[in-house]
Structures
1.
Amino acid sequence: MAAEAGADSIDLGRPGRRSRWATLRKHLAWTVVGGLALYLLTISVDPYRNLQIATIAYTAIAAAGLTVLTGSSGQISLGQGAFMAVGAYTTALLLIHREDWPLGVVLIVSTLFTAVAGALVGAAAARLRGPYLAGATLAFAVGLPALADYRGLREQLGGGNGLSVATKPPPLRLGETFPLERWQAWICGLCLVLTLLLLANLQSGRIGRHMRAVRDDEVAASLAGVSVARTQILAFVISAACAGLAGGLLAFVNSLAAPGAFQLTVSFQLLAVVVIGGLGSLAGAVYGSILLVLLPGWSADLAQQLDLSRDIYANLPLALYGVVLVAVILGFPAGLQGALVRLARLLRGPSRPPTITGR
Amino acid sequence: MSRFVDLTLAGTANGMVYAALALSLVLIWRSTRVVNFAQGGMAMITTFIAYSIVHRGGSYWLALLVAVLAGLLIGAVAERVLIRPVENKPPLNAVIVTLGLLVFLQALAGMIYGGTPRSFSPAFDIRGYQAGDRRLLFSPADLFTVLAVLVVMAGLAVLFRRSALGLRMRAAAFAPEVARLLGVRVARTLTIGWALAAAVGALAGILVAPSTFVGPNQFDATLVFGFTAAVIGGLDSPLGAVVGGLLLGLALSYLSGYAGSNVVTLGALVVLIAVLMVRPAGLFGSTGERRV
């Protein structure tokens, strides 16, 4: 899906009407292909795999938002997991207190609410750079989950155990035996495909160009008439909205919103996904999410064969993310997607000098 | 009133620990312009080393010594292997590398010690001093914390102000090119700076461990507090780190006492944002303000 989004080059000039339509057509084609592939996959695999597909889909939504923020706009955020918590708790509260609302409305409201939270944090963050921003969002990510146990909110938010919500069954017209997991995979897959379509268009459009201009040189961008603060806040809002949707889907799939699901590690994992996939690449965010969700299972299988203890295999994926974060930055700054793009160019022949995208 | 006194005393002891961690962040920021997000993880590993020694029957002082030495080593290795390649690259690269190291160290600790936090006993009594007929919220262990951090700060001040090595380090941080021309081995001073910083962080870890326990993620909040304290002080001023640590320790102690302990980290976030809004260079910082 939107595999070309990683190959962006900075071009502040306006593309002609024809090329804009060509880009949109290409994105729509990828959306249809991706949606169809997901549909075929969900009807051919068992419920457990469908649950994994749903998990991959909402992880990829959160990662895609982060890749727009960190890759395109150049702002590093460790708060993506905390924004997911905002979306998840909003969805859980709505599912509990507004039982008659359709799921779509609940998810949209959760996304919008998280976007507002993102605007607040983004307005503060627009003044912060690099390590300062990382530190502030780190405080946000460490501090927010503890709020669930704050004495004024414990009643509403369920404290350390979180809020469990009734499972939303698939609509009856799909048949009474329609598996729940396939329904969840459909909802999450649909949200993922739509999110990627929106983000791909956004990245190849004016807003995306503004973000990359601000990322590469703030002074030059503002001289060219780009509002630096507004662009950075907008990037924050977009990434928070994605995290809110992802969190809402997480609460829907797991029927639970609990602080344990949004510890700092979640934000680190999402950052690892984005860095592995190549900063700024939406396709990379999707591969990275697939790896993130499948890796713990592989690690457990490996541990069983080698007879390792639980402590070892439970932490093996995390250790790998740490090593990969360092190795990618030191060795392959363009990530997996960058490596694939470079490989494709090598196979196609040296038609133009290779450029490394992302940072 | 007595509650206020108690919170002030407790805040002072906590603030000194934040000051120590802030100091280790400041030492690194001064020399390499990197915020070491792995500092919490490095301190966590060295504290686990100390825990193992105490657990096997070693004395507290041996454990402290070994932890500080391990900190020196880890800091030097981290600088040589991980940070040197990202010098003069966009700041995002260094941030991600230190975060990667943090994630790796947390996973490593989880593999060796499991996820359950372990208790870590302090060197001195944790029952508060008796004042008249009531106990203060300030114990001999707290006094040791305050004194230990003060001694380290005095030592660093002497090192930077009075010794040739300190002069070289300040020169390398202030103007690396000129220092290199004048014969300072800049790369080596950067490594020494990282080693010293990690050793100070190791001390902070041991001092904070009795109250937070030792576990892979136990120092996350402590790192946030250390970072906030460093930013209050201006990120490149050692004196600022100490004042920032004390101010933050007091503020968070009052917040925890009057509003509840679950809002303390978010309180630190509010302090952090407020300081960056009003005085982006901190109280003692020298970096120019950036506006957007």
2.
Amino acid sequence: MSVLVALARAQAAASGFAQPVATVRHVRLHPRPLVFVPLALAGEAHAPLAALVGEDRDAPRLLLVAQPRDRSRRLAFAAELADIVLPYLDARRGDVEIIPVDRGREIRQRYLDAPQLVVPNPAGMEFVRLLGRWLRFRRVDGEHPAPPQVPRLGCWLTFLADRAELPGSSLLVALTEALGTHWATGQSVVEDAHLASLVAWIDPPEGRTGAGAAAATEDPSVCPPAGPATDPDFDRVVLAPLIADHSRAATDAARTAVERRLADVLRAQLEPTWQSVWQALDLLRALPEAASTSERWAHDRDAFSDYAAHLDAGGAPQPRHDSAVAAAARLHRLERAAAAFERQRAYDDPMVMAEHRLTGEAFAGLVTLAAPDRVDDSGRRPVLRPRIMVRSDDPIPPAVGATLGSPARRAQKARVVSVDGADILLELSGGMGRGLSAPEGSVPAVGERVVYTTVVDAFAPSATFPPVDQTPWTHGGPPAPPSEPAAGALAVGGQG
Amino acid sequence: MAVAARQESTRQAILAAVTSPVADRLRTLRGPVAPRRHNARTIAALTANPGCDRRAVLDAAGVDKVLLAEQVGHPARFGQSPFAISRGVTFESGLKADGHRALLAAVRERLGLAEGPAAVLDLGRSEAAQLSNEERHERTRQALSRADVAVIDHPMLRVEVAGQPVYLEPDLVAARLDGQLRVVEIKSFPIIDGRADQAKVAAAAMQAAVYVLALRQLHRQLGRPAADVSADVLLVCPRDFGNQPAVAVLDTRRQVAVLSRQLARMTRIADLLDRLPEGLSFDLALDADGVSTRPAGELAGALAATSARYVPECRASCELALHCRTEARGSTGALGASVREALGGAADVATALALAEGRVKPGPHEQESARLLRHAARLRAEALA
């Protein structure tokens, strides 16, 4: 944890109220997100029990599995969910924009909109991933046929869960994570995992402290867990007897009566979380959106458009395991996205930049001298290379020769020429047009407050990976044609 | 004859353990009730937060921490859903039906062994379950020394905790199919596409390590090399979304080493006891209905005499965690070890903030962290302005 966030936690603990650790919102919020609050039956690998789902905060749909161990009833749940999720996804496929690729030699299309699925917590994301895994290989024919929309839902949920691993993506959002990157509470991350508690710290009811309101959310009989795991006492006292009643019900009327009672108790378990989710969305929405969010959302729209095209073309569901090449490519994508997201957050948000200033990766100061029209004519061609002197109070100066960037002028690079105590001499390049004199405002003027950082967009072309059938021997060689792995040939790695 | 001699030596060892001054002291701490029995889960939990003296003392004395936590007004929340329990029972009984057929087949396939008959001895069967712990432990010993028994189910194992012998009735199978004795642990969480919940796998590995340790001690007593007990534990879980078993091999060498170290530390409990006030007791003074009659304030006072080291992770394994958390309010440790570290190790929130705001003069060892905190406070104020 960074010192700055730790300090914010200490301040929150002392004041009883959550403290901001971001000044802008780094997550894209869709005007119409699809909120999904699932519950699962304890003990099973993946047995959906109930869910509240919908785009309308005042009218959530309750989905229910009265016999969660019954496969056909689970599939019926999936079919119902598909009837909500798939139309939502399709409605995002309206207008397109044309993007030139390969210097305009080709074009591709991308939807102007993309979906956003919102869940309460990372465990909710895992539920989405498992549901996707369970559904995408369902067959629509054969012995236990699934309704035709079910495998398609599985593919889409898998796509969303995969995409959520990408830092900065906003297609599938877990709210505890989103809130946690914008506010620090005066409790530990263990307690922060409970959405209601986190929301209480940030936005307590009138007249109460965040700490006091959060403490009240810890009793599961007062504030049910945000799922998908249910409260064991609820399972024992309420749920188990009802499910048993349902199994014993002899007539359709009796079954319907039990189902109505089940719906009531499960809705009561889900409702508080549903409210917390929308309250959390309100809190996030109240923050101004960070500048780079739309750039990342454009990538999300790309991914959505590509995957929609893949499915339209009858593409296969995602494999159970990535091949070596696909895994390497995925890791490469994740690393690049993580670096880009970290950089964008710093440039968009002075609070994040402050963390870099604390560790000496950035400094702020006042411009004390400026030579905006300085031309370097030592080379073959004269080039515009303005110099500025910055006086900084930050304790750690940059290294001489380092390349720096600045949030105020993102197209411009600065090179550290010399450091003399608090005085840092910088030479600027880029972002000033092609002439030999700098346009007004493109070079910081004397008296301007500037921030420079070593966190820069060091352009590196995407790595290229061999085709799957040329997987090198170091990575196991070309994989065998896909087949079901033998029973027992599985291993669990990386414990502890 | 040899068996009788061994039983006698065991009895002597137990006698020595329960009549020592340490045992007296632990009895006083516990009050006039039987000590809480350890199981693999509680022993594995000893490795969590080993720096906590309170926990070491309470566990060594076998105090009922569940009741204690309730009585001081912070009941633990470690309920298990009936659905989870019945799921576990269903999966396990499927594997063990028909002479452990499915279990053996899965394990053999994982180990690359040929099919074949294997003698299974179940010490958890009703007639064996009537026996005392000592007798069942003795049977386990006998079974291990027999060459013709390949699989022992529900063996009774023993480890020493704080100088006290503790019997473990593990829900496990010890299998000797390829020369090595292996712990086979059945769990009901799934392995999906070769992946399982890491926290659950880690907990299973730690519990299995307790069994490995106990089996090794037993092997040593039998005059066999401890290394005959493999540290590679076989974890048997449902595969994907069905009921078929998936067998994973867990290397528990690290966990075994951690546990041995922690158990060795507990034998030095005498040092911890010396630091406690004379006459300290956690006697719950249970009435005929098993309800504690000891005033909560008194018990909380007794707890305060032991030094705790609360960290948020305690909540996953210790019944007293919520009480300790209340006590630790205002400490940086209660916010998490990483927060405390980032705040330069300042013990409490008020100190950290006073240093950050320059309201106190830092001590000689705090200069560096105080400078960092002051800078951080300045940057935060600037960014929020």
3.
Amino acid sequence: MSIPCLAHLRARYCLATQFVSVDFGLRDSIIEEILSCIDRRATFRRCLFVGAALLCLYPTNSARAQDTAFHEAEDKYMFGFVDGSDIGNEGEKAIEFETTGAFQKRGGRYSAVEQELEFEQVPTQFFAYELSAHAMAHSISGVEGLDNINNVAFSGASAKLRYLIIGRGPGSPIGLTISAEPEWSRIDGTDGTQTQDYSSEFRIVADTEFIPNRLYAAFNLIYVPETEKGAADPNWQNSSGLGLSTALAYRITPTVTAGAALEYDCAYNGLAFQTFDGHALYLGPTLQINFSPKILLAAAFMAQVAGHAPNDPRALDLTDFSQYRANLKFEVEF
Amino acid sequence: MKRSPIKMLSLAIAALMLGSFASMLPADAEDSVTVNISLKDHRFQPAELHAPAKKPIMIIVKNLDPAPAEFESNMLRVEKVVTGGGTITLRIRPLDPGRYRFFDDFHQETQGYLVVQ
């Protein structure tokens, strides 16, 4: 019978706490245990586990040393599909590659991936704008209510105007921003067919820091009016969307932030919510990595966990919404 | 009078843009307070600046080093490159009392504070 290895138990504790709080004494005792394991010719597996624990401790202590380096951070992209209120610093310019995917509808195989190339500038301490060109790739096969299609095309252009009403910081624990994102599309985002589509996404964004420079929270109220005319359709169709989303994000290290987001979306016919079309609730994780002060990567994934479309008894609304969403942003500031 | 949603949206976008352009106007130089700071051997001198609350602030940064620096602050919401031996002027909005950290984005350990009282 093998003797329980103290380091083994402590290593399990270390892995469970995921770099959060392990003291230096524990690190020293694990080092002693490794030497002891070697002396006792302990099993390779045990030594390996203890070694892994030591590796685990390295970033722990590294992170501890950097605790004082948790300075204020921009939270614009921290929350994935949910916006933060920060708009950037006056004088900032950036190029951004943003990929947004919608996956899985009712039956068959469905993917709609949009690639945006964005130029972003912050001309004042209160205002920022983005100019974007869009391309879309659709791969649809055997999906209920949609024609099969496989195409990639330039799909349109958009601009995003962000106006900071209240800046988070001394004097205000809450940040508040409003934004408008008018967009022209020549490809229908859902079915991939040719269309003429004009829409604008309006957001009211509020955020706060529950733990200064560490734990952030954001809330968005979203309204998206849209008017669209298919290539063979003589009439314009109006629709609108209403969304409410919230997210939490925690800075694990000064450069890595992880969190979770929740979004509730409703779809309507008409610009002012005339007829209810369906609703969906999404939930998913977020991650942001700052590779350097000028380069960041933000990723988010959401799955529809509840939803319903009128006249469809089945769970989830996969007529108006996809089952999964993913978003990837890569920003290079210059 | 009932307005169509499209007209209301257009008005909202126009108001947003108007507000944005208004905010681009520089602060009145006569009302603002000027503070000076220099960079020498990758250190801010002085490392702590003081300014009154609720007044526009002009920060004049002189880089006495030969290497360029970037004066940046997420709290002040500004960033600007200052060339080696160069000088820049930053116009800051009226601030609430507090400590506002700034740093050199090219040498992140180089930092200082603007104390607003």
4.
Amino acid sequence: MRRVLFLALVVLIVGGAPSVLFAQAGSEDLVFINDNPPFEAANASMGAWIKDRIGIGFVPESYPDLSTYQTTLRQSLLSSNTAPDFFKWWSNFRIKPLVDEGLLEDVSDIWAEGVKSGVWPKTVSGEVTFKGKQYAIPYHYSHWGVIYNKKVFQELGITIPKTWDQFIAACEKIKASDRAPICMTLEGRWQSTLWWSEVIMKTDADLYLGLVSGKIKFSDPAALKAMEKWVALSKYYPKDMTLPWMETYPNVVSGKYAMTLLGDWLFTSMAAIGADLDTDIGWFPVPSITPKGNGFVLEISPIAIPKNSPNKERTKKLFREWMTLDGQKQWVKTFSESSPAGGGLVPDKAVYQSIKNAGLFGTKVRYMPRWYEAVPVPLCEYTMDKFAEVMLDSSKLKQVMKDIDDYRAKMK
Amino acid sequence: MDKVKPYLFLLPALLFVGFFLVYPAFMTFSVSFTEWNGINVSKMVGFDNFRFLFSDPAFWKSFYNTIFWVVGSLVFPVTLGLFAALMLYSLPGERLFKVIIFMPYALSGVVIAIVWSYMYKFEGAINTILAGFIDKRHLQPWLQIVPINTLAMIITYGWRMTGTNMVLFSVGMLAIPDEPIEAARIEGASYFQILRKVIIPMLASTTAVVVVMAIINSLNIFDIIWIMTQGGPYRSSATLGVNMYFESFLNFNFGHGAANATVLSVIVMAASVFYIRVIFKKREIGS
Amino acid sequence: MQKNTKLGPAKIALLLLAIVLVAAWIFPLWNVAVSSTKSLPGYANSKPWAFARGENPIVQFGKNVQRAIQGSQRGNGIRPALFNSLLYSVTGSVIAIACAALAAFSLACLRVRGRFFFFLLLFSGTVFPLQVYLIPLFTLFQKTNLYDTKIALILVYIAICIPFCVFLLRNWFLDVPLEIYEATKIDGASDLQAFRLIFVPLSKAPFAALFLFQFTWIWNDYIFGTTFARSGTTRSIMALLAAQQNMYSSMGTPAILASAIFVSIPTLFLVIFFRNTFFKGMALQFSGSSK
């Protein structure tokens, strides 16, 4: 009996193996690699829509784990055997190493068409432009602002704050009602950069840009002074900042926390757990602290085509279709995010309209790069941890900022 | 042909291990002397990576944490394992008790990290219980407080490993001969005296195995820490293994990561050498 | 050491202590089990170890498991991952044990020259942290076009399981009385025949134990599964569980906990019902182990 089993096993492995074991996900549709399993349905639907239009479709394949995704995707770009048709990435310094090693396809012509046809404003491509050429097109396009629970505000009689002092007063009122005014967790580490960058760019947008480029030191007196307002926010965070992100935003929906600062991609997740985007959730921009603080975070996560992509020409055609006005309208509808194309497209809910009404799609807005992408990766990872240290112990502010300066100086 | 045949028996195992384990270990070792981010052409930089490492506060923090873990896993899972084995020995229901304590062995690091993270939350089970004993104001989200977070994770690890140690000690106890114990009892020794003077010394070789295995396993810990705190907050709970992952897969500095892995490997090898000599001393056929 | 099962007062005290210890051990699992039977609002409004009021735990658990299965979307769902993990765990263990048995036989019985060195080489696989293998193996698979294939993972799992199996089987073979081996030689049997006809049949117990150990290890592996597998067709079950904790996920805690229980059922089953085989196997790590 044992011999039979053993033989069966051998047959299974040797005979059945090649097709099963060596099979990689193959299909005549293009394959879109990303790290967002929850968005698979939206991606698949978009792929089907484009296939209807031009006969070329795509299917999503999602990695679960952020650092695994980033590592293995980078490596996979090196050869045409492993490179994906196209993939989702982050902009600016996160994509720069890929551009520097010549691993991405130049898509400037697709952008040029978009700008010439009037669909795309010229200002939007900055985060994917290197030495005058573009290497990716937008996938996520998010404005960042305060997402709040309307019922909590109504109950406490709070109106949308238009100045920083009003914002702090609102936080005090919410705190007094035994809720956490500002949603926060340190579990993914990136969250520590959110309010730090927001406070600085609302104090002085040029100060933020100076810190990004390194022209201004972190321990510069003006910078430290601006950061004091950031440190002052620490008392409005929840006591438990170890919760996984997935457990925190439901608390905004339930009213346990009142507000959170994030990109508008959060609305989809909130709707998925039952929030009504017209009546339960609202949005307002973070108020400026001084008139010079007129920066707004614009997050663009792009999709790019590897130079080693197996179906380059077809993928480029796909990108072209995605960038058309119809394509963007469909994308906005499917993905429930906004797009700057065609003067600013937003999904049909009140909460998105607030973003448009705040004038954030205008061409005169000072867009700021998100800290996560704005500086070289090791520095960014270092600051994520250091900011968390200050959030947990505000007396460390001066020392930590000096440490960051030293680290930056040591970096090549 | 006769001379070659014995080596043929070794061949399959050697091929697998050589190709997929030994060769990659050498590659990592050699990467520690280069500057490489995975996609560029690597450049030899001699001992620069090691120099960086030894001057990096995050490295030293992870080094001390690693020592904390080794000591912790000797104090907690090993002694509790011994205690459980002694206590349960010939107790009614021994089998059932042993299975329950051993059960976490079946769970993966991911599941264990998830289970315990939920217990350590500020509103989790641990605090709900503690609230009955201590002032509510002292309660904290434990995974956020340094250095209690490492201690909390060691407790989690202990929950996982105590069962294994207990079983090993139990096996050792079965092998203890009755005569010395009988003799001591006849001479009027109390239970604790018998324990100290007879039982524990006779468990020496078992203890050696358990201790060295505990040291090696605790040096290599990764998934529990990574999933519970990512080595945070601000790298305060990272160990050498976590630090290596950080440098390689978050900063994409494989040179630093490989240097880190090399340092860790040297420490683990030093701990294992003793173990290997002990277990290889076994008499062999024909010798 | 003799077992004295008389029930004196000291024993009763120990029994109570043991009950407390065991209760503390079950407590975390109890929390998870109970939490996985709650709906999201029920979870938010109840103590961790108590059932949610007004909810049917069994129905809700079923709902959570369903959510966990669906939550993995579009064909990259739980069924392929379960199949993959089963495939890896079974083939990885069986082939590793086979290779290890051959190697252990030669190290224990065949007086190979340099056997300490070979043993050291094979044993080194258990010593190093797994991260040491990640990047080189990734590059290797990429260059040989084996990245993200089932065969790549199977090969890696076989390799990582061999060292411990060699160690255990060598101990076991060394305990076989010398006379038996000599007898086969006198009868004119070749080494391979001695191995097949004598040593293998004698080794049912350690083979079973090793199969359980390695199956559990491979089933529970996270780090290799996430690094070397990208698509749903290759991914293991623990990688899938980790995916459900993803940042954009809207599954909710109870569903995740239900999922965690669900994926642990096979190995829990093995540990509970084959505990004696596990325990006997662990005994094999010692020289002069009781037989």
